[in-house]
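Chain A, query sequence.
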Amino acid sequence: MKVLIVDDEKGIREVIKEYSVSEGYEVLEAENGLEALQILEQKSDIDVIVLDIMMPKMDGYTALKSIRKIYDIPVIMLSARADEFDKLQSFDMGVDDYVTKPFSPRELIARIKVVTNRNKVTNDEYVYKNLRINYLGHTVHINNKEIKLTPKEYEMLVYFVQNKGIALSREALLNKIWGYDFFGDDRTIDTHIKMLRNSMGEYRDLITTVRGIGYRYEEK
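Chain A, predicted structure.
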């Protein structure tokens, strides 16, 4: 797998490269958005881009606009900006994930795995023990019996599975499932989580509560 790291800080690039290489990834580097676009013109087989926002010559937002016009490559935005506006703007522009500095290199690698797997899914089903999700049919079965989920509950379960092992904030869930124009509060998520757990019966514990953050899907 090829990873393109775009950041004007050499130290940041070296840290990400070290952890990426340890996973067996091939790494390409760019100091700014303009250089990243030049690399993309020559290398069409890049699997994921880690893209900083604040860079000279061409910032991450400008580069992202150009990337999305031509390429369908997963992009993880890397930024010191933790404001909600910046995160929402990035997701609205088409990023697959948003990581704030300072960050855990191991967590970044985990997120790289998630976005690349999400974009390379070829299986029509997810199966864990006697739990089966049919993506084409939008159905969920437990012990060969279909369980009835609302559209939002189904979307939430699929999103959890796609991001298994990663703690998802209530904000992230609201943005992904309900959209950025949602007007409400975090209790909406908690209510739907409760209903989803009830529907999942013996598999309810796969969705764990992460205190102070939100929820995580974990295969036991």
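The longest helix spans residues 105-119. The longest strand covers residues 2-6.
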